[in-house]
Amino acid sequence: MATTTLASVLDLIRTAGPISRVELAQRTGLTAATITHTVRDLLGGGLVREAGRRPGAVGSPRRLLDLAPDAWYAVGVQLSRCATTTVITDFTGRRLVSAHSPGVGDGPPGDTLTALAAHVEQLLTSAAVPRERVLGLGLVTHGPQDRERGMILTAQPTPAWQRFPLAGTLAELLSLPVLLENDATAAAVSERWTGTVDVRTFGVVWVGGGIGGGVVIDGEGFGGAGANPVEIGHVPLDPAATLCACGNRGCAEVTAGPAAVVAQAAADPLERVRLRLSGHPDDTLTDFERLAVAAERGDDRASRLLRASAERLADAVVTMMNLFDLDTVVLSGPALVTAGPVYAEAATRAAGRGALARLLRPVRVLVSPDAGTAAAVGGALVVLRSPLVHAEPRGTTPGDTARPVGTARPKAPAP
Predict the structure, then answer these.
(1) Could you tell me which residues belong to the region Disordered (predicted)?
(2) Residue 57: what pLDDT?
(3) pLDDT tens digits, 119-154
(4) For the whole model, what pTM was predicted?
(5) What angle do CA 102, 342, 256 make, to 5 degrees?
(6) pLDDT at 406
């Protein structure tokens, strides 16, 4: 049975299950015979299970299918300068455990990854996940990336990270396959396959230490091997403003991003002390969260800074909507755990007056219900949706029968 057929059926069961064979045929467009053979293979491989019956309009009740949660497990890690989020999920994508820890800061990549591997092993033990059932780890970082070689292509957070073999090194440390993915793309995977959005075409604006973007078109992710497809954070909004690290001036990231907001607040020594801001790059997300909490409590200075940032980011959201003819955008990322509603309100107003899709259909801007961990969950889902699922017979250890650890990543399906 073709891997693509197996993957498409698994994806549908993951998002719509429990579901019958008849419904699988109707929604995939595959023949009843193909569905029968596919389901037989999935049942035989322990990837799906029967989950009761549903009465039909005529004839016998239809047998329902659902994913077997314990078929495989995966780890997702979202790694940034400011924070690290690690999750472990079962085969359905359900989060079993999550943990937040300090970001990479200025630390060398080798030491950082060694500590991360030990942290992952501790979480797997605490979650009582059978080590032999862990399919792999999805490592989520900023872009641009060389996903085939498992590297970041920019000198961030420090030059030592540029072209360092992240995926290969972590794979060796954990004896697990490691797939590298862009943070905004991973967040889009999470929103799509955990059911946050009810459409097959939408955008994600990711706000963490920086700003990124991802787009899913008719259920397929837009992008290429460089993991650099929708860099909405580097759309110039004010050509006369601050020079960005990318070489442009006035990009969304340097005019509306968390670091810009914190810098404005911390520029006044009295405000810096009053709001308890560190001002250090490693503390950008912590400082931004303090501002968001203060704004939520009615602090005028913090509110004005966040609203100004939200208005700028709203322009970038509308740009994304018009470039890709989107009527739905999800705002996600650790910076929006508290501040999300402020940014969604501004973007909704902007979309209502400037998104061309509004002339044809309703437009909306949503806040992810799992903004803080969506990218990490998406990293785990990238693994669970990859060809590794079909390459490993149940009962074997991933890495024993898969590619040698640390070599080029399998080509995972787009989100």
Answers:
(1) 391-415
(2) 58
(3) 999 999 999 999 999 999 999 998 888 888 999 988
(4) 0.87
(5) 65
(6) 34
Bridge partners of 401?
A: none
* Cβ atoms of residues 367 and 340 within 8 Å: yes
Task: Return the residue matching tokens 């500590």.
Answer: 115
**pLDDT tens for residues 256-315?**
999 999 999 999 999 899 999 998 999 999 999 999 999 999 999 999 999 999 999 999
CATH architecture, domain defined by 3-67? Orthogonal Bundle (1.10)
Contact 13, 24 (CB under 8 A): yes
pLDDT (0 to 100) of residue 405: 32
197-367: same fold as 73-187+374-391?
yes
CATH architecture of 73-187+374-391: 2-Layer Sandwich (3.30)
In the chain, where the domains are located: 3-67, 73-187+374-391, 197-367
Backbone angles phi, psi at 179, to 5 degrees: -110, 130
Whether domain 197-367 has CATH 3.30.70.980: the reply is no
Q: Which residue has the higher pLDDT, 54 or 253?
A: 253
Residue in the block written with tokens 């889009």:
188
